[in-house]
Amino acid sequence: MLPFKLVYHPGYDLNLGEHVFPSQKYRLIRNQLLDEGFAESRDFVEPLPASDQEILRVHEPGWVDRLKTGTLRAEELLRLEIPYSKQMVEAFRLATGGTILAAHNALRDRIGINIGGGFHHAFPGHGEGFCAIHDVAIAVRALQHEASIERALIVDCDVHHGNGTAAIFAGDRRVLTLSLHQFNNYPGEKPASTIDVHLRDATGDDEYLDRLRGALGVALSFNPDLLFYLAGADPYREDQLGGLSLTVDGLKQRDKMVFEAALAQKRPVAVVLAGGYARQTDDTIRIHCNTIKMARDVLKPAC
């Protein structure tokens, strides 16, 4: 039995068909962990979908209503870059509920993992880049609202800048946002995070880890009650939407660095998997599974 729960729901699949975003990856991650014997069925828990009340702490009523009723304007669909369906909207609500649950689990178990989430391009009034609802922001607000936490740190290691995150929390002294990303990549406009680490094209393991180490040291001095970790698989050198050059081992070392740095300061970590678009989907699955395995390996000696 794992020392933490894995939050998952079959409804996470956005059912996009032939699309660069392999939203079937959530099911494949679960199956891989079970097939390898790393996890058992009892290690998984299903979330409830996020409520309107929870979502509206971050998103504008008009955007939420248009998502629910399927009345998005043509330009909104173009910006979202995925086809609309009721199933898609429900998947985002479930993933958001999963991130809220993973955050609660992290406070109890030191690490909580959502096999999904990390939709950091969503803004209060619109969606972008495959992201319709900002699950991490909603989870931060949910836990602050119930006074489970006061201060949150968001460490975003997706290859793409967390523009929605930066915009939502701009000027909020209770939330520190750190984005480590390829500079010459989506999105074109990058509102300022609290800490932005702009990486050159083809940055490899050594430079990436060195830059992350420095940024983490500064960010953790914020003394957060909870760290949200967006463990994107897309800094991988074979990613279709990325331009960095990390190896599978480099990504494992990245995960280890984040977990060890947080736990050394007794900061719980809520993990969401964020992006991953490797040319071979099996590579994306392996990288995401490695994040989960590293969480167990780092946590186990402390048990």
Short overview:
The protein has helices spanning 25-35, 52-55, 61-69, 74-80, 86-109, 135-145, 163-168, 205-220, 248-264, 281-299, and strands at 6-7, 44-45, 111-114, 152-156, 175-182, 195-199, 226-230, 269-272.
Characterization of the model:
By secondary structure, the chain is α/β, with parallel strands linked by helices. It has ten helices and eight strands. Strands 2-1-3-8-7-4-5-6 form an eight-stranded parallel sheet. Helix 1 packs across helix 10 (281-299), helix 8 (205-220) packs parallel to helix 9 and helix 9 runs parallel beside helix 10 (281-299). It is globular, with a radius of gyration of 17 Å. The mean pLDDT is 97.
Reconstruct the topology from this structure.
Blueprint: E1 6-7, H1 25-35, E2 44-45, H2 52-55, H3 61-69, H4 74-80, H5 86-109, E3 111-114, H6 135-145, E4 152-156, H7 163-168, E5 175-182, E6 195-199, H8 205-220, E7 226-230, H9 248-264, E8 269-272, H10 281-299
Helix pairs in contact: 1-10, 5-6, 8-9, 9-10
List keywords for this structure.
alpha/beta, 303 residues, globular, single chain, eight-stranded parallel sheet, 8 strands
